[in-house]
Amino acid sequence: MTDELFALPPEVMLFPADRLASTVQAKLDIRAGQHCLTKPSGRQTTMLVSAETAALVELFRQPMSLTEAVVTFGVRHRADPHLVLDDAFPVVRELIGAGFLVPAAGVGGASGDVPDRVGDYAVRRLVQRLPDLTVVRAHAPDGTEVAIKLPSDPFDENSRSALRHEAAVLRLAQGCRVPALAGDDTGEERPFLALGWVEGASVTEHAARVRRPWDPSWPAAALALAGAILDAYAGLHARGIVHADVHPRNVLVSAAGDVTLIDLGLARVPGDPGLSQGRRGGVLPYCEPEWAVARRRRMAAPPATFAGEQYAVGALLYQVFTGHHYVEATAGAGALLARIAEDDPAPFSTHGVPAWPAVEGVLARMLAKRPQDRFPSMAAAGSALKDAGGPRRSAASPGAGLLRETTERLGRPGGPVDTGLTAAPRVSVNYGAAGIAYFFYRLAAISGEPRHLDTARRWLAWAARQAGDRHAFHAAELGILPDKVGRVSIYHSPAGTACVDALVANAMGDRRRAVHAVGAFVTASLLPCHTLDLTLGRAGTVLGAAMLAEALQGTGVPDRCGLAGLADQTLASILRRLPPSVTDDAGLRYRGVAHGWAGILYAALRWYAATGTQVPDVVRDRLDELAALGRTRDGRTTWQGPHDIPMTGWCHGPSGYVHLWATAAAVGGEDAYAGHALRAARACAPAHVRIPTLCCGLAGQAYAMLAAHRLSGEPCWLAAAHRLAGAATREAGGGDSLPNSLWKGDLGVALLIGDLDRPDLACMPLFGHEGWPGGGRP
To answer: Residue 139 pairs with which residues in a beta bridge?
Structure first.
């Protein structure tokens, strides 16, 4: 299926769910970012999908294979194509089964019932189809490109009136940052409106691509973008126009940074008898409190005002600067309305980006709950933002700033360490409180400061109170579901939380707590699980046991809790269930560390090293077989990833193999393994990706360089680790950043910066060798 061409039929409509009436949104409990996928017939005519799924589905407007689509999606969204494909496969299968995606051979013309010509314009392609409107891209007779709006029902008077209204507003707005009015046939029998074509991305898509909050160049770029947005709206306001439909898709930004406001169909001109009325727009995260209060009271929505629009633009700018909404936007419509009406914007640092008091002050005034407390005009807000553009508090380096502000944000009394996390998964090692606890545990080891252990213990106490919450380890919006991540993963389940708890207790000298935590790890690891791999399955149990055995050696705790029995039985079961050959794809699909052979063999080696057990022939044979499958070119060795997509990350790429071969060299003492490790390190030394994370990106590559440095002692690897850490820091906070996630966000990058101060102690979080005696560390 991955290579078959599929397409989205022309009659299928895909549009943001926030385009639905607010009453419908509330009834359906629409979540922020969801999209509606609809078609006129079939067993299932409507489906709600996430923004990420919508972006992937949109690629099928042109015939495309699933593999091509996920690679394109991965490049655009800085995501690992391997993981995208794993996540997308069941979704795409469901879409195919419901008839939303069909084999390309069964799709007729790409334009469906869209005419070849509209007036004098030659239609090129369908751009968007909404329930009441179709937008096409066309050529004017002189070759100029235009966007043409056509009502779905040309005889519907409401649709015709809406087009006439937009044309009238556009005539008034010409000269502002709006599309040119190229043609107005709204009075004809088959009405249409032709607008100058605007090339660009939505403002949030553009900001996600360019946002680098820890890069010294970001403040100037951010202020320029925010200033252009404010100037665009101020220009409309100067003409007496309230846009009345503020949201990211109505603000287009060109590659050069030029801003254009589009879709003025709901705009109003207060005081103009013909243009003062209009349907009220509103996308929930960008609506003003006056609107939210009215909706909560089930009153008619108030008309859009200049003061209300200033609030909406403030909400939009907050997202530009931070990558997040100013209020938690994952709740249902009712809860979101309450937050808009009552909650003040959170500090920038809440989202893991540098504090910027002057800019935050401007946005706070724009987002004041009472209209009279906002700026007197949009132009005044723009002037205030220009005045706020002084330098932020700087650190010796961006990396030092990231580490300092992360430590302060997550360790400050009264902050998240006391109030907890709201984003799910809230407790797991990969995403939540257990990962934060491990961050502080490692900072204590690096710095020798006991206060960090106290902070780690506080995070673990909060995690324990949340352990039974349905959001503790799972998050549907991220695809982290029980049937996907399993029940025993040290990264996604209570087993991982218990493992971290035991490590922290041991570091604090709390033997009683350590016994309790190791016992909890053993109990959690005995739950049913049929997956073998390291990230989600049984091999992770073996790795966790190895880390505990190393750290607690000589304390008697592992023996009291049956840790060795758990690991020995689990590893024996894994080895019995392994396919007879590494090339047996039917038995074990992947070869990399996260989900394949490399991870299982790594966990086995770690357990043998921790217990002083001789490596059995079956493991040595599989190591040699895996080594022989490497592809070496110019001194760089890589191994085939899933679907043969080349990657450099830890999960599927050579970064993970560096740890495997370095450990094999330390345990087995064979020079050949050391050679494999260094050739793998050369393959992942370049900073080709723009993903900062441990799992799939630059931070994981940097830890591979540190492993190569410990193995060889060569300074070039330490220099490469610093270079990759600098690149990871510049990318942190960009895109859809997860500031509190150890493995999938910026927290892992911050820990890497700390580890670089003591490379002799550095280890990849809850995976690498922590340096305890007998651990097989290079």
So the answer is: 122, 145
Q: In the predicted model, what is the mean pLDDT of residues 441-461?
A: 97
Residue 599 near residue 582, CB atoms below 8 Å: no
Long-range contacts of 183-186 (CB under 8 A, 24+ apart): 183/119, 183/120, 183/121, 183/140, 183/146, 183/148, 185/119, 186/160
The strands making up 46-49's β-sheet, listed across from edge to edge, are: 13-16, 35-38, 46-49
Tokens of 386: 């220009």
**CA dist., res. 501 & res. 510, Å (int):** 11
Q: Which tokens belong to 129?
A: 């189809």
CATH classification of the domain holding 129: 3.30.200.20
Per-residue exposure over 122-134, b if at least 16 CB sit within 10 Å of its own CB, e if not? ebeebbbbbeebb
Q: Would you call the peptide bond into 558 cis, given omega within 30 degrees of 0 as the criterion? A: no
Could you list the residue range(s) of the whole structural domain that residue 326 is in?
Answer: 204-388
Q: For residue 296, give Cα distances in angstroms to 23, 281, 308.
A: 10, 16, 17
Under a CB-based contact definition with an 8 Å cutoff, are residues 380 and 388 in contact? no
Using the predicted structure, report yes or no on whether residue 778 has a pLDDT greater than 90: no
SS3 626: helix
Based on C-alpha coordinates, what's the Rg of the chain?
A: 28
**Cα 390 from Cα 361, distance rounded (Å):** 13
- Determine which of 211-215, 279-283, 362-366, 548-552 has the lowest per-residue pLDDT on average: 279-283
Tell me the β-bridge partners of 38.
Answer: 13, 46
- Cα 430 to Cα 436: distance, rounded to the nearest angstrom: 9
Least-confidence region, from 18-27, 673-682, 759-768:
18-27
> Cβ(769)–Cβ(663) under 8 Å?
yes
CA dist 661 and 710 (Å) reads 13
H or E stretch including 434? helix 433-447
pLDDT at 94: 73
* Count of positions (residues) in the chain: 778
Listed in sequence order, the residues at least 6 apart from 463 whose beta carbon sits closer than 8 Å to its beta carbon are 426, 427, 432, 433, 434, 437, 472, 497
* Among the ranges given (502-516, 620-634, 725-739, 755-769), the one the predictor scored with the smallest mean pLDDT: 725-739
Residue type (1 letter), 439? F
d(CA 249, CA 226): 15
- At a CB cut-off of 8 Å and minimum separation 6, what does 767 contact? 543, 659
Chain CA centroid to CA 19, Å: 24
**Residues whose CB is less than 8 angstroms from the CB of residue 320 and which lie 6 or more positions away in sequence, other chains included:** 203, 204, 207, 211, 222, 225, 226, 229
Q: Of 701, 704, 685, nearest to 693 (Cα)?
A: 701
Domain count for the chain? 4
Query: Which has more pLDDT, 480 or 3?
Result: 480
- CATH code for position 296: 1.10.510.10
The pTM score is 0.81
Residue 768 lies in a domain: no
- Residue 763 located in a structural domain: no
Do residue 713 and residue 666 come from a single domain?
yes
Q: Is residue 725 part of a domain?
A: yes
**What is the rounded average pLDDT of the residues 115-123?**
89
Nearest alpha-carbon partner for 711 in 743, 667, 753, 749: 667
**Contact 246/316 with Cβ under 8 angstroms?**
yes
Cα separation, 45 vs 30, whole angstroms: 17
Query: Which of 68-82, 393-407, 410-424, 606-620 bottoms out in mean pLDDT, i.e. has the lowest?
Result: 68-82
The reply to whether 286 and 189 lie within a common domain is no
What is the per-residue pLDDT across 257-302, written as a single tens digit (0 to 9) for each?
Answer: 999 999 999 999 998 888 887 777 767 889 999 988 988 888 888 8
Helices (H), 132-283: 157-173, 203-210, 218-238
Is residue 500 in some structural domain?
yes
Q: Are residues 382 and 456 in the same domain?
A: no
Structure-token match 């909406």, residue found: 312
Please count the other Cβ atoms lying within 10 Å of the Cβ belonging to residue 549.
Answer: 24
